[in-house]
Automatic annotation (TrEMBL):
GO MF, one example: 4-alpha-glucanotransferase activity
Name of the protein this chain belongs to: 4-alpha-glucanotransferase
Gene from which the chain derives: malQ
Domain of life: Bacteria
Keyword annotations from UniProtKB, A to Z: Carbohydrate metabolism, Glycosyltransferase, Transferase
NCBIfam families linked to this entry: malQ (TIGR00217)
Gene Ontology biological process terms, A to Z: carbohydrate metabolic process
Length: 773
């Protein structure tokens, strides 16, 4: 379905008002302007849903229109703050919604360079105004009132966070460049070339002599891989999410179910990068974890509770032996450690209250797990007085447990040092991009991010996916997300801070489920679900602006079915899509085979596979089908059909065709590396598992304990990853294919220096500037 206009006034027309329920939505609506498409629903209920940004209809995986059940709509509306269980309450909610009218003030509006700035606002907001650019230059202008409750000022020619003031009221005007920072910008010294990169699961890496903490991957091992890959010509190193999980509950190890996307997973920190190996070894001995560490290193699968015991025990010993934490500041116990204390203090000053709040959450989470038992999941299980981060009870806990909170601040400092060091290693080894971080689509509803931002988070709803061919009941991922209206009312502060955190120590980000910038499938506890529209234009422009400020390329995970026009809109903004070998097929009219990779667009990223898909060797051998059969996912007839289809696909994808699956671990990998290498995409990324010819994948969607998700380790150390005979041979295939043909840059690719003289210098100056207060 497509967005439709005109439509009745809705929350989509509002930016902020003090009485606006936090769950209401913003943005263009998915469904049409009337109730003809939802004949089975009460018209007033369908209309209220649309006005709140909920689509009463959706198109399923078979291309058929589906209507959201009335009870599901009522549950979703209730979570958004609008009760709808009776016709009278539907009418009351509709009256309350439309009584808001036009907002008196929008804290932040967005635009693109060269385009007029247009936003919803009250006509009283029109008149003489003063525009102050981020660099301090000011201009007089006029805010013009347009029909329908819109306001407008002329185009602003410089990207940045500017201010416009009228009648004593200020609004931030976030002006984005026409395009995000792209690979051609990052690798400007070699225009038009085709590059390659490596993708690794951070947990899977094995340390070498550089690091000291063992049993699972970490930032020291990541730096090692970055150096080796960069020296061999890689321009990028894509990494699984490094988001903060739950230090006190390490068995919750999925990087895509984070406690907070703004902070880091402290189990990836390697104190040896800061304190040196000898000092860490001594701390490990004094903490009594040296023997356990040796057992963990010998294991084939990661024991996350054991890893946490070793790493946190060692790091606690270092913290207590090095610092005294008092009045919110670390003091060095020895003069020789004062430079470390100074660096730690600078980190605390930079993180401010949000960092302190996260550390307080970690301390509270550990405290209540000890007090209430291991089934304590998140902050919803805590006593009521601790569920509000601004409560007196939380403040008193922080005062009484200052040293413990200091320990969690210390862990974040160690992790930040490690990640920054890995990016420095990547760039120092010659990578034009370096690390590409991964941004999860949501957060754990009981975690630090949801606790810290309760006013802008939707509670009681799970992000997921509608029913499809593989999941006929749909999916609920157990993740929370931001409320569109509350996010806009707050000036998108939490969203911007999250982007900056992921981009800060990387040369790019991959946005998981990039469809979520436009709409998200949300499910209430009783099941079902519907799409909630997001403020797409605002979110997309903010991504582009932060991309330029941080010199970070942006990749959008756009696999599967996406709304019409989404890929085109992302490409128009310089955001790269993803082309995975197995998914790129010809149309049925063209034979249904695998598409010629040389026709894949330059503005996308070519991949052999992803963490959620079978490896090259696993796909060839049908290992993913084996797992589905073992776990009872699908009927015997389904499994038989999948095996028959895979046999046909093996024939279609091979050159020459008709290769047999038996004993061909290397030839399929060579084929895959050659096809991805020959693609027209500017960047081709291969998985470490494919480089090594491994059969098992990192994660099997739809499973929790049935498959060892996020626990598999690579069989070689980070220093040997690219040097095994098979890996070296496959890299040769890839690099030869990359060099075989040069592809010209995208037509019309935006050149900021050509269109905006002096813009490059301006962007350098404002790269890390904060939003206006």
């Amino acid at each position: 379905m497509t967005d439709a206009q005109p439509r009745a006034p809705s929350v989509a027309d509002l930016h902020t008002t003090p009485a606006l329920p936090p769950g209401a939505a913003l943005g263009h609506l998915v469904a049409g302007p009337d109730d003809r498409g939802a004949m089975s629903l009460p018209p007033d209920l369908a209309r209220l849903a649309r006005d709140c940004g909920i689509a009463p209809e959706w198109i399923d995986a078979y291309g058929q229109p589906q209507t959201v059940p009335a009870d599901t709509l009522r549950a979703l509306l209730s979570a958004l703050g609008f009760e709808a269980d009776t016709p009278a309450r539907v009418a009351e909610s509709a009256d309350r919604l439309h009584a808001f009218g036009h907002p008196a003030h929008a804290p932040l509006v967005t635009a693109r360079v060269g385009e007029a700035v247009v936003w919803r606002g009250h006509p009283d907001g029109a008149g003489p105004a003063r525009l102050t650019l981020e660099d301090g230059r000011g201009y007089d202008c006029a805010i013009e009132a347009l029909p329908g409750g819109w306001l407008r000022i002329p185009a602003v020619g410089v990207p940045g966070y500017h201010r416009i003031e009228h009648d004593g009221v200020q609004t931030v005007v976030a002006v984005a460049p026409q395009r995000a920072w792209t690979l051609d910008d990052a690798c400007a010294d070699a225009p038009g070339e085709r590059w390659w990169g490596l993708a690794v699961q951070l947990h899977s890496l094995r340390a070498d002599a550089r690091g000291e903490l063992v049993g699972a991957g970490g930032f020291a091992a990541l730096a090692c891989v970055a150096e080796h890959a960069g020296r061999q010509g890689a321009q990028a190193l894509a990494v699984s999410p490094a988001h903060a999980l739950f230090a006190a509950d390490p068995a919750r190890c999925s990087p895509y179910s984070p406690s907070s996307r703004r902070w880091l997973n402290v189990l990836h920190a390697d104190a040896a990068l800061v304190f040196g190996r000898e000092r860490v070894r001594e701390a490990k001995r004094l903490a009594g974890v040296a023997e356990l560490a040796a057992r963990l290193e010998a294991a084939q699968l990661i024991d996350w509770p054991g890893v946490a015991e070793v790493r946190l025990g060692c790091q606690r010993r270092l913290y207590e032996d090095t610092f005294i934490f008092s009045e919110g500041r670390p003091q060095a116990r020895a003069a020789a450690d004062q430079p470390l204390a100074d660096n730690f203090i600078a980190f605390l000053d930079d993180g401010g209250q949000p960092l302190l709040r996260h550390a307080c959450f970690e301390a509270l989470h550990a405290h209540f797990r000890r007090l209430l038992g291991p089934k304590t999941g998140g902050f919803h299980d805590w006593p009521a007085e601790y569920r509000d981060p601004a409560s007196p009870a939380v403040a008193e806990f922080a005062r009484a447990n200052e040293a413990e909170i200091g320990f969690h601040l210390f862990l974040q400092w160690l992790a930040a040092c490690g990640l920054a060091g890995a990016q420095a290693a990547a760039r120092g080894a010659g990578m034009g991009v370096g690390l590409i971080g991964d941004l999860a689509v949501g957060m754990d509803p009981g975690g630090s991010e949801a606790w810290s931002h309760q006013g802008v988070v939707l509670h009681g709803l799970s992000v997921g996916a509608p029913p499809d061919l593989l999941n006929p009941l749909g999916q609920a991922w157990g993740l929370a997300t931001y409320s569109p209206a509350a996010l806009a009312a707050s000036g998108y502060r939490a969203f911007i801070d999250m982007l900056r955190a992921v981009m800060r120590a990387s040369g790019g980000i991959r946005i998981d489920h990039v469809l979520g910038l436009r709409r998200l499938w949300l499910s209430p506890p009783d099941g079902g679900g519907a799409y909630l529209q997001m403020p797409f234009d605002d979110l997309l422009r903010l991504v582009v602006l932060e991309s330029w400020r941080n010199r970070a390329i942006v990749i959008g995970e756009d696999l599967g079915t996406v709304p019409a026009g989404l890929r085109e809109a992302l490409a128009d903004h310089g955001i790269a899509g993803m082309k995975v070998l197995w998914f790129e097929r010809e149309t049925a009219q063209d034979g249904g085979g695998f598409a010629d990779p040389e026709r894949w667009p330059r503005g996308a990223v070519a991949l052999t596979s992803t963490h959620d898909l079978p490896t090259v060797a696993g796909w060839w051998a049908g290992r993913d089908i084996d797992w589905r059969e073992k776990l009872g996912i699908g009927t015997p007839a389904d499994i038989e059909r999948q095996r028959a289809e895979r046999a046909i696909d093996r024939t279609l994808i091979t050159e020459p065709p008709a290769l047999d699956a038996s004993g061909l671990a290397v030839p399929p990998a060579d084929m895959a590396f050659d096809r991805v290498g020959r693609s027209g995409c500017a960047l081709a990324v291969v998985q470490a598992e494919d480089l090594l010819g491994l059969v098992e994948q990192a994660n099997l969607p739809g499973t929790v304990d049935e498959h060892p998700n996020w626990r598999r380790r690579l069989p070689v150390s980070c220093g040997s990853l690219l040097d095994t005979p098979d890996a070296a041979a496959r890299l040769n295939v890839l690099t030869a294919a990359r060099a075989r043909q040069l592809v010209l840059p995208l037509k019309g690719a935006w050149n900021p220096s050509a269109t905006q003289p002096g813009l490059a210098a301006v962007m350098r100056e404002v790269r890390q500037a904060e939003l206006p207060k």
